């Protein structure tokens, strides 16, 4: 980029900032401050008075229990359960879910409604009893008797063949300070109570646990599992590897982005209202500079906020690296939305769709950070790993961020294609504008090949999403659906821009041209899909489902040359089918797409059964 | 207010405007997007529920047992505890090395090395560092160890001031049963409300920015009627969407109770949110400013009301799961009264606005 366009970019960005700040005039700012103060006042007041709390599951189960019953405090102290006088008629009506009755303080009987809700209430009651016992034990003066069992959990990679590995893992005891971050707050405060009784207790366990708090009072909480690490504590504090608090912290990164894209979408659509953007369009500045200049302040704001959050929650550079593609994805999707929307109302729907979709897409896989490598389809997993103190390898980082970055660049390019008078200020339908956007990127065979290749990250995202959704379905059902879905996704990616080109009369309708476009697209797709090798680096195809998605493209090293050529032939043939159909109306294109998908799915099916 | 000749032939202008707003939404087809979002949320949430249950509740996996290797001088105590758990089968090993090799060869998925340490039992639990399996193994190991802890506590009851309560039977309930009611239902109910408020902001600021409010004002309607009409359209669509989702969930096998009261509460909240939105549309200088204020106002409203006992989220959850009591209905009443009050406030604001200055 030349120095001149850099200067122009800077000026546009500055202008955008000054206008954005101008929007927040004194009245708006004053009202905003009043609202914030009001919220703070209400929340603060309620919290101070101790009346409330954000327990959304408060009193959702009703338990019939007498105040004299030894289990009464369990129910009374629980947020989920509410205590009522036991009433068998209420139980029969479903107005009470569980009844606990004590006879002579010896024999305890309990009864549930037998419904799904009753069983769930029973399960909640059981875990509340455990929690109650833990609280009781924490205040016992004799901590050795209260906590007779100490547990160290170590995660060990199997088949490492030497007992030395175990010994090494044992010696390498992690410090308790790390665990505090993850452990539940109850245990954290309980430990202080225990510490006071320290003097009366034999100092057991100090030698082996490397001088941790285990020696005095209750054992420390066992934190969320970090693979390869070790945890110590009482049995109740064992948590399966589920990165709950890291996940919650990672979610904090996503919240401010919603505000950023709302303002960003507004500024894009604002240009299109009453032809306001025309002045900027006729100025001697390139389109790219205008868009970059208008985007830069919002990108900076998004990254700035994320940086502050990263510092606040204890994340580092890895968190920032994980958040960057998410910020880009939010902005690029909003840019396209702002270019396509016809009114503010439409923009609102688009913005909500974008935030819900991207948030879900990045958040849900991150839940499984410690469970399966599929989690790496989300850059947020990188953030969660960082907050857990795990560092991501270069391969993992690339696997989860590159598709997002490439995807964002593609979206920006598509939006830029319609950043021109005839699309900005007219009320064309969204599919029309979408075809315009694709058409604007095309010139000849080479551009068709390039854009097919650029769609691959989207294909990737769509396919991984399909895998994630079908992850829990039984494998007999999920594999066939997956094969067809993947075939359809790939066929659309190979042909939609060719269709756009034909609809805008960019390509010659002659049959050889159509076949040529099909060959260019199919071959490009084949080459680009080779990049799924990155997926194999991370070990994704270890999963049976991953294999179904990626094996048909032929990455297994045992393949012969003939088998290597088969997928190439497939992609070219199906792309030619759709290219022929694309010359005509939508219905014809749709039918061609259908045929191509069937051919593709059939081929995939044969390959999968061949391997099986 | 302007005097109006209320002839029977003339439709209420508010209804006309509301009808136009709803038709516009239908024409733009973006309402389809809103439905798609909610379908997506619902679909993914059930995916989550099923996924979590199968991950953290191995009872779903039939006949799944975990082989545990047990060694150490406190092995007997541990074996006794493990015998209460059907899903964990134990094998005793004489020394650490043979347990290790069983683990490495895959004949054991878990090693308990239990040793007495003064008066306590220290158990080194070794689990494989793999994927889904690890979670299940850790969960099962915890259950065994908690049983052991309980038994050991009973043995030491003489040294304890309180005896720990024994568990009431074994749990076979779904620990994620309440997820649908406490998260999914409120989410599906509140999302349309947020969107309704947001489109109210859009609808008003767009008229102001495009300058079409002047045209509308040439027509024989007052600004209050215009705002009423736009608000009416936004208020109607949110409860309708919420109702659709609740019925769909019921059809799908998740019983939702008290649908009527939930819809009433939803309507009241929508009125409040839409009134806030319309107020912000007049206070903010343009769409960006107004949407910004609206977001803060909505967050303030929900944060404020969720902290109050019997907040709307909790009330909806309790109504839906059929655990409502008097406070739930009291909450509905308060929200209905608040809705009337807030809407009255909006009308006050609008009557102060000089349309010529917009």
UniProtKB/TrEMBL annotation, chain A:
Coiled-coil spans in chain: none
Sorted UniProt keywords: Hydrolase, Membrane, Metalloprotease, Protease, Transmembrane, Transmembrane helix
GO molecular function term, any single one: metallopeptidase activity
Region feature Disordered, mapped onto this chain: 168-234
Biased composition (Polar residues): 195-215
Membrane-spanning residues: 29-56, 244-265, 296-314, 320-340, 347-377, 397-419, 448-473, 479-502, 514-539, 559-580, 587-606
Highest classification ranks of the organism: Archaea, Methanobacteriati, Methanobacteriota, Stenosarchaea group, Halobacteria
Name this protein carries in UniProt: PrsW family intramembrane metalloprotease
Feature: compositional bias, Basic and acidic residues: 176-194
Signal peptide limits: none
From TrEMBL, chain B:
Regions crossing the membrane: 30-56, 179-201, 231-250, 262-283, 290-308, 328-346
Coiled coil regions in record: none
Keywords: Cell membrane, Membrane, Transmembrane, Transmembrane helix
Membrane protein topology class: Multi-pass membrane protein
Residue stretches making up the ABC-2 type transporter transmembrane domain: 63-315
Name of the featured protein: ABC transporter permease
Molecular function GO labels: ABC-type transporter activity
One GO term describing the cellular component: plasma membrane
PANTHER family in alphabetical order: MEMBRANE COMPONENT OF ABC TRANSPORTER YHHJ-RELATED, MULTIDRUG ABC TRANSPORTER PERMEASE YBHS-RELATED
Predominant location category: membrane
Pfam families on file: ABC2_membrane_3 (PF12698)
Localisation per UniProt entry: Cell membrane
Top-level taxonomic group: Archaea
Organism: Natronocalculus amylovorans
């Amino acid at each position: 980029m030349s120095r001149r366009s850099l200067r122009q970019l800077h000026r546009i960005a500055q202008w955008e900032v000054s206008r954005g700040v101008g929007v927040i005039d004194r009245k708006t700012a004053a009202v905003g401050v009043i609202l914030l103060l009001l919220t703070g006042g209400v929340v603060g007041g309620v919290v101070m008075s101790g009346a409330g709390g954000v327990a959304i599951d408060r009193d959702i189960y009703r338990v019939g229990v007498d105040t004299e019953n030894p289990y009464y405090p369990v129910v009374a102290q629980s947020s989920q359960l509410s205590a009522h006088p036991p009433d068998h008629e209420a139980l029969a009506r479903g107005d009470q879910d569980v009844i606990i009755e004590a006879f002579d303080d010896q024999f305890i009987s309990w009864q549930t409604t037998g419904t799904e809700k009753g069983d769930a209430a029973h399960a909640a009651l059981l875990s509340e009893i455990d929690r109650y016992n833990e609280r009781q034990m924490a205040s016992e003066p004799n901590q050795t008797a209260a906590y007779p069992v100490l547990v160290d959990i170590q995660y060990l990679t199997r088949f490492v063949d030497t007992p030395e590995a175990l010994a090494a893992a044992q010696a390498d005891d992690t410090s308790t300070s790390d665990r505090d971050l993850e452990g539940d707050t109850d245990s954290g405060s309980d430990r202080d109570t225990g510490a006071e009784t320290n003097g009366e207790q034999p100092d057991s366990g100090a030698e082996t646990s490397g001088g941790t708090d285990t020696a005095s009072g209750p054992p420390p909480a066992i934190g969320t599992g970090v693979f390869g690490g070790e945890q110590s504590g009482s049995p109740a504090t064992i948590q399966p590897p589920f990165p709950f608090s890291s996940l919650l912290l990672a979610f904090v990164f996503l919240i401010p982005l919603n505000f950023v894209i709302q303002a960003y979408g507004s500024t894009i659509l604002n240009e299109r209202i009453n032809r306001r953007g025309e002045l900027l369009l006729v100025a001697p500045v390139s389109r790219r500079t205008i868009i970059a200049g208008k985007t830069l302040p919002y990108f900076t704001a998004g990254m700035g906020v994320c940086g502050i959050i990263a510092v606040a929650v204890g994340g580092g550079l890895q968190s920032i690296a994980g958040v960057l593609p998410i910020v880009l994805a939010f902005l690029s999707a909003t840019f396209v939305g702002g270019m396509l929307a016809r009114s503010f109302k439409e923009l609102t729907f688009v913005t909500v769709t974008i935030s819900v979709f991207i948030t879900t897409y990045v958040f849900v896989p991150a839940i499984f950070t410690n469970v399966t490598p599929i989690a790496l389809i989300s850059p947020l997993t990188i953030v969660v790993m960082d907050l857990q103190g795990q560092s991501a390898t270069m391969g993992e980082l690339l696997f989860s961020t590159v598709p997002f970055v490439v995807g964002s660049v593609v979206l920006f390019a598509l939006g830029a294609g319609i950043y021109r008078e005839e699309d900005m200020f007219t009320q064309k339908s969204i599919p029309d504008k979408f075809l315009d956007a694709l058409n604007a990127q095309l010139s000849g065979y080479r551009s068709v090949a390039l854009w097919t290749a650029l769609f691959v990250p989207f294909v990737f995202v769509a396919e991984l999403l399909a895998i994630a959704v079908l992850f829990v379905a039984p494998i007999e059902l999920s594999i066939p659906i997956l094969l067809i879905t993947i075939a359809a996704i790939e066929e659309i990616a190979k042909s939609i821009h060719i269709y756009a080109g034909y609809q805008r009369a960019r390509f010659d309708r002659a049959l050889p041209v159509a076949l040529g476009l099909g060959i260019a697209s199919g071959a490009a797709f084949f080459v680009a899909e080779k990049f799924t090798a990155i997926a194999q680096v991370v070990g994704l195809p270890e999963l049976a489902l991953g294999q179904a998605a990626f094996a048909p493209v032929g990455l297994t090293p045992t393949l012969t040359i003939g088998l290597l050529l088969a997928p190439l032939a497939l992609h070219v043939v199906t792309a030619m089918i759709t290219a022929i159909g694309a010359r005509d109306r939508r219905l014809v294109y749709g039918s061609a797409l259908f045929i191509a998908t069937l051919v593709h799915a059939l081929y995939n099916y044969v390959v999968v059964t061949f391997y099986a | 207010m302007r005097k109006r000749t209320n002839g029977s032939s003339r439709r209420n202008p508010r209804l006309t405007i509301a009808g136009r707003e709803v038709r516009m939404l239908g024409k733009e087809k973006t309402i389809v997007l809103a439905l798609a979002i909610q379908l997506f949320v619902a679909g993914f949430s059930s995916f989550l529920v099923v996924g979590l249950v199968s991950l953290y509740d191995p009872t779903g996996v039939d006949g799944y047992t975990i082989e545990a290797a047990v060694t150490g001088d406190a092995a007997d105590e541990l074996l006794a505890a493990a015998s209460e758990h059907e899903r964990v089968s134990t094998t005793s090993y004489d020394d650490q090395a043979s347990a290790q090799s069983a683990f490495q060869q895959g004949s054991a998925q878990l090693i308990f090395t239990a040793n007495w340490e003064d008066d306590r039992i220290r158990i080194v639990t070794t689990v494989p560092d793999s994927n889904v399996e690890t979670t299940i193994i850790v969960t099962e190991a915890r259950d065994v160890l908690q049983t052991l802890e309980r038994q050991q506590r009973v043995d030491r009851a003489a040294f304890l001031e309180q005896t720990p309560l024994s568990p009431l039977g074994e749990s076979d309930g779904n620990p994620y049963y309440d997820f649908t009611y406490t998260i999914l239902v409120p989410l599906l109910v509140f999302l349309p409300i947020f969107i309704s408020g947001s489109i109210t902001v859009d609808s008003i600021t767009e008229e102001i920015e495009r300058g079409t409010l002047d045209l509308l004002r040439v027509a024989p309607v007052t600004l209050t009627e215009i705002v009423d009409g736009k608000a009416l359209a936004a208020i109607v669509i949110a409860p309708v969407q919420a109702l659709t989702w609740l019925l769909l969930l019921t059809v799908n096998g998740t019983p939702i109770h008290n649908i009527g009261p939930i819809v009433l509460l939803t309507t009241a909240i929508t009125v409040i949110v839409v009134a806030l939105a319309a107020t912000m549309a007049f206070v903010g200088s343009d769409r960006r400013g107004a949407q910004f204020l609206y977001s803060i106002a909505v967050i303030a409203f929900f944060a404020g009301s969720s902290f109050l006992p019997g907040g709307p989220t909790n009330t909806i959850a309790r109504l839906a799961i059929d655990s409502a009591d008097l406070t739930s209905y009291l909450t509905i009443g308060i929200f209905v009264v608040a809705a009337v009050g807030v809407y009255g406030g909006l009308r006050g604001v609008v009557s102060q606005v000089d349309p010529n200055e917009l």
